[in-house]
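Contributing new records

If you add data, match the layout below exactly. Sequence lines come first and carry their own label; structure lines follow with theirs. Keep one chain per record. Anything else will be rejected by the validation script.
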Amino acid sequence: MNSLNHAYLPEDSGVLVFDLKQEDKQVLIEYADDGQGIPYIQSSKVKTNLQLSIIN
């Protein structure tokens, strides 16, 4: 949902990639988009933890 809300302008199209892997009894889901990314000014203020994991 984050990609749909933030990565693209309404008139843009893009690619969402999901990769699912099974390791032992776990399922790993990797996700990526080719959206516009985080502006440098905003990203330079973010620490290296999970502060960007939830953006509304």
